[in-house]
Sequence to fold (306 residues):
Amino acid sequence: MKAELKEQRNDPKSLAMNVSSMLIFGTIGVLRRHIPLSSAFIAFVRGMLGGLTILAFMKVKGIKVREDLSRRQVLWLALTGAVMGINWILLFEAFNHTTVAIATLCYYMQPTIVILLSPVLFREKLSAKKLLCAAVAIAGMILVSGIINGNPQSGSFTGVLLGLGAAVLYAAVIIMNKSKIVCSVNAYRKTMIQLLSAGAVMIPYLILSGTGIDSNALTPKTILLLLTAGILHTGIAYLLYFGSMSGIRVQSIAILSYIDPVSALFFSALFLKEPLSPAGIIGAVMIIGSAVIAEYEPGRFMGGRS
Fold:
């Protein structure tokens, strides 16, 4: 009986895989800054290469690729992937309009958005602790945005809005993945379909918007960065993330997910020389700290990847 009640221990290999995936995700903003192409085209490449990378992994590992999915499940996954693709566009555009640090912190308002929507969507009672954490996160977002001190250089209002828009869609992806429609689908298969859908939905958008590709921008360096964004920052990062799930406690997964935004702040300061203002640092602590405290409930996990 004692053995059954004993908590699962975190496997060191799984921990290393999870931390590695978070650090990879944390560098996507720095990478985007060095790709002189449209956000829609980067999202297209990221989705297609990421999905194909997971497909290749499944083939090598002998994981069943084809499954008797209902039309409803396929459509739901495709819709979720489309939302994911648009989410990427907004996030990549946010990186273009403000610092990587501010855009990332806006993006990580997702847990707060889910908390505020949970009473309506999941009929969950909004506890005093979660309500307080949401209020602290919103106050932190105001500090990060630079609205109070009126310093436009510390954060473009357009970039803040784009980052928050990406957070809303990120929350939508998390909520859609919780649906009973797709909860039984294998995680690798589910992610593969969603990534390919995220890339595919960009094709009509690129055609209808007339977003062209500057041939002069397709240098060997740019092509290498695109391959890195699709294969490493999407395909391999997702494989590491989902591959670590079985060896880590649920609570640890939630907490470790915040390595992503923290590392993004560090990398943007190190490689792009984009340090936060004192008010921004306080706001960052408020946003990330409140999200961690809000999620610290045994047996629950609200985070996820997009």
